[in-house]
Each structure stands twice: as structure tokens, then as C-alpha cells.
Amino acid sequence: MNRKAAGLLAPAAAVLLVALVVAAVAGAWPPFVAVESGSMEPAVERGDLVVVTATDRFPWGGLVGHAEPGAPTRLGDRGDVVVFEPPDAGTRPILHRIAFPVSAGEDWTDRADPALLDGDCDDIAACPAPRDGYVTYGDANGEYDQSAGIAPVVREEWISAKALVSAPDLGWFRVGVDAGIARLGLLPTAVGVGGAAALAGGFGAVLIGLIGRIGRGRDGPRE
């Protein structure tokens, strides 16, 4: 029984170990983000899993906007893609790209892309900039977050991590777990996921044993 339990727990332990190693290198926890919307398509799609790092982590130190000279390419375009969560916004963390930094009191529309603005500074609640921070946007969206009212000017302390790479479709499990927690609560979801994992592990063990028996039967002596 102990061997069977260890066999069932080994995959989960391996996943946790990998996550801890990635977190140690990246300096962020959790080191993975599951994408829940299509606002960063086509480079990042709903259900993708994104590896993130701390904003000051070597060798990716600092935050670089899309409009800055020499901006590195991140997830299909120029500039850093960051995870941020404005306080009192009532939304989940947002994964969007930095356009450029702004200073308190600045009319930042003067150096913005007109195609991503809905009016001039007088028409936008986040203009002039109420604080030092960043203007952001989703690659698939038609406006800056601050023009569309998705987010205020983003303070640097609201940014928890920045994205490095994405893996297609590996985030669906996390999306499903989050949805289960939101609908059923943490404990019922944990019990359900644990039960499903145990069932899958048990089925796999039975299947492997059956295949082994069939193999032994074929290789055994014939009368």
C-alpha cells in the first residue's frame, strides 16, 4: 500500500519540485500564470501557461516599455509583458504589455499612439496622469487600458511579475481549478481534484498491470 501511495504521489511531488525550482530561479511565486482571456492574442492565447519572473530578477532587471528605444521582444512584440493588480479594482490580476512610463501630471496622450486612444486627454479619466507609473495595453485590444477604463495608470508597486515565455494550452488545468474554487469553494475543489488524481493514478496502475500480464502471457511457455 505504501508503494502504491508513493507511486500515486510521485507525479504531484515532481510537479511541485519543478515549480519550486522555477520559483527559486524566477524569484516569483507562483512562477506560472494561467491566461484566462484573449487580450494578448495571438502570441498568448486563453488557456496558455506563462512563466513569469520578478521584475528586478537578473538578467531581466528593470521594466521596459514598447515605445522605448531598444526594447526587447517579449511574447511576440516589443516591451515587457507584466502581471499587475490595481487595488480596489475588483478584478483578477491583468497580464498586459507596458506601453511607456508616465509622470504625475503629464498629458501622456501627446506621445501615445492615436490609434489606441478614445479621444484626447480631456476625455480620458486617467489623463493627466494622477501618479508616476505606466500606460499599458493588451496586444489584441484596440485601446490602452487607461483609455478604455480597464485600469488606471499602473504604479510600479502594483506589478508583481513580468512574463518570459508561454506554453500553449498548459494553463487550462489552472483555469479549471480557479473556476471550481470560485464556484464551489477551496475545500470541495481540492477534494475533487485529489479524487480525480487518485482515480487517474489508480486507473493507470491497473492499466500498466494489465499490459504486464498480457506481455507475460505472450512470452510464457506454450504447451
Automatic annotation (TrEMBL):
Its main location: membrane. This is S26 family signal peptidase. It is found in: Membrane. Residues 13-98 form the Peptidase S26 domain. It comes from Halorubrum rutilum. Keywords: Membrane, Transmembrane, Transmembrane helix. It comes from the Archaea. SUPFAM superfamilies: LexA/Signal peptidase. CDD domains: S26_SPase_I. Pfam families: Peptidase_S26. InterPro entries: LexA/Signal_pep-like_sf, Peptidase_S26, Peptidase_S26B. The keyword Transmembrane applies. GO terms for cellular component: membrane. Gene3D superfamilies: Umud Fragment, subunit A. The chain crosses the membrane at residues 190-212.
